[in-house]
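Tutorial sheet, problem 5. The two components below are modelled jointly, 489 residues in total.
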Amino acid sequence: MMKKFILPLIFIAVTLIISCETSDENVQEINSVAIDMSDFYVETNSEDGLGKADNNGKSKNCQSMTVLNRQLKENPGLYNKMYTIEMHTRRIIAGKKPDGTPGGGKPGGGGGGNDPTPFTGSVIIPVIINILENSSGAVTPAQIDTQIAILNEDFNDNNPNTSGAPSEFAGLVANCDVSYVLAGVNRKISTKSSWGTNDAMKHSSQGGIDVTDPSVNLNIWVCNIGGGILGYAQFPGGSSTTDGVVIGIDYFGETGGVYGDGRTATHEVGHWLNLRHIWGDGRCRQDDFVADTPSSDRSNGGCPTYPTVHCKSADMTMNYMDYVYDDCMYMFTDGQNDRMRALFASGGVRESFVN
Amino acid sequence: MRLIIFILFILSFSKGIGQKSNIMAFEYIASTRGILNQVIIKKDSSTVKTLNQNKIIKTSPEKWNKLLSLVKIIDLNTLEDLKSPSDKRFSDAALSAQLNITTIVKKYESSDFDHNNPPIEIKKIVSELTIYFD
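Model answer (structure tokens):
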């Protein structure tokens, strides 16, 4: 029995040592040409089991590569799109020089061609609000105005709560310089009390309102979602007919209660701009693909006290991409800003917003 | 004597032996921003928790035995590697769910999956645990 148990362990260890040598080389090449995509996921996979056999992260890369290959086979459509966007994002971020890096030159690319960097100018996003309400005007103009104002506040580092950031995180606060401008309001009467999360509200054929040109507009659908869901989003790479975010009527703009300050939209627009949940939707080693956010193995709710420690470091519970109350979230990081801005760079999936 | 204890310890982690004979609790948690659905079922009592209430009820012998029979078809060591059939939780369109099974030896935690769409391997046992919320 002992033998039976130990043999597979030895086998795994040997396999890791052999198979990981190549991925090590890839990591070193990040600075020149190759982009390491080995940890990309669309689906969650727990890597802790294998990871414990290895302290330096090699096993994670190898294990994930297997998962990635499997997923490519199983879901080539959406997965390939998201993979391509992720690859582009990483190339852009790798092309941006970390502050303080000596020598200014871009890494010499083997294939010629300049690696673009994240878009650096101001970004202005026209917003179309698509409202499904049970009586005309149920969603008030004040809700619309305050929602736009809150998005502008949060994406331009004007949230008054940010001043309370712990010193560990204060230096990471980003001014994203992304502004939101109301471009149109569409209203439709509907008595439906629970639209669900299958995008019915985005199709007139299902009683909803069709998207308005998503290549140059952020579409926000406002309706009763049901099931207690406050809002949901779609990542870049999904169908253009459903591109945008959905916010529950009671959580749209300034309303009331702990989710009444309009930050459900900030969180969902973060997803729309390619941000993952800050804990990476998995265990400690599953990442949100942002270098300056701490690793965590869970979401945080309510209004956590600092420090809330998971995975041996304090969680950035005040990040817009955690699950805390509206008043307790108040920052994006520079790394998240780069990730969002990669979408607007040359060849980025939302480049059409800045051209 | 030490050797025997060591071997027993190793055996308890091995598939099929010991891992299910000493089950202490079944736990299902599904949460997202603003929602918590949690149930912990022990042999004698069950706790059903949401953000608004915390209810403790008696566990019926039928329920407990049903769960014990359903867990027999699950290899607890594979829980942490189960593949989620969908990922709506990544963009908040579904609650993020987890199945945890505690034995005398350890707590087995599943990988995360979308509430209402569990991996096929644990579908039956999950449906016994989610009835408290539907």
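Marking note: The longest helix of chain B spans residues 2-13. Full credit if you identified this.
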